[in-house]
Amino acid sequence: MTQLSPSILAADFARLGEECRQVLDAGADMLHFDVMDGCFVPNISFGVPVLQSLHKALPDAFYDVHLMIRRPLDYVDAFVKAGASCITFHLESESDAGETIDAIHAAGCKAGLSIKPGTPAEAVLPFLDRLDLILVMSVEPGFGGQKFMPGALDKLKTLRAECDARGLSPWLEVDGGVDAVTGPQCVAAGANLLVAGSAVFGKADMAGAVRGLKGL
Questions:
Q1: Residue 79 and residue 5: Cα distance in Å, rounded?
Q2: Which of 14, 25, 33, 185 has a CA-to-CA distance to 49 between 20 and 30 Å?
Q3: What residues are annotated to the active site?
């Protein structure tokens, strides 16, 4: 079954807690929390204090934390303590991937690994059996509202086939330009977790948007 992780970057920050509650009530499975440091990506978003506040307001929510930062290993403990349910970091970051995965698991959190559009799917394979989530970026990380890059579909197919061959069942997530058209294409390619921002937040019929993306 396809699950949905709406990106709170697209929410109204003046009503962040309220909108996050609304999207969960509308049927979203979790909240996608994009952390940007202005170094690894050319943008700055939010960090630990915002996650702490959201977790306090919505303690039962699953927080899908995506670290688009240069040194994710240095911040694992802080985000876990703030309420992260799963921490995904980039293979292209400066932190050692194996050490970072181990640190996330040691802190009692699920671990995910993400790749940018220019990184081949094969780069994930050495870590595949240690991951709870694999995130394929279908846009360049850093800004919302970009057009979906169809090359992500081949990566999803490669990763799904390898997971199936090894008997593994991590979330295979895709992020960037996901909407009612591209979402089903990603699911057909093997994704089972979709990140969507403007395709959910701000919609008059949020529940309908969620159902549409989940194929219900």
A1: 18
A2: 25
A3: 34, 175
| Residue 40 annotated as lining a ligand binding site | no
Instruction: Give the range among 53-57, 66-70, 211-215 with minimum mean pLDDT.
Output: 211-215
The residue among 43, 58, 44 whose CA lies nearest residue 6 is: 58
Q: Work out whether the CA dihedral 13, 173, 149, 71 comes out positive or negative.
A: positive
Is 118 within any annotated ligand binding site?
A: no
Element (H, E) at 53: helix 48-57
Question: Of 110, 96, 102, whose CA–CA distance to 66 is shortest?
Answer: 110
Q: Per residue in 117-144, pLDDT tens?
A: 999 999 999 999 999 999 999 999 987 6
Residues shown for the chain: 216
**Contact 74/50 with Cβ under 8 angstroms?**
no
Contact 44, 35 (CB under 8 A): no
CATH of domain 3-214: 3.20.20.70
State yes or no: 142 annotated in a binding site: yes
Residue 41 CA to its chain's centroid (Å): 15
**47 annotated to a ligand binding site:** no
Q: Number of helices (H) and strands (E), helices first, in the chain?
A: 7, 8
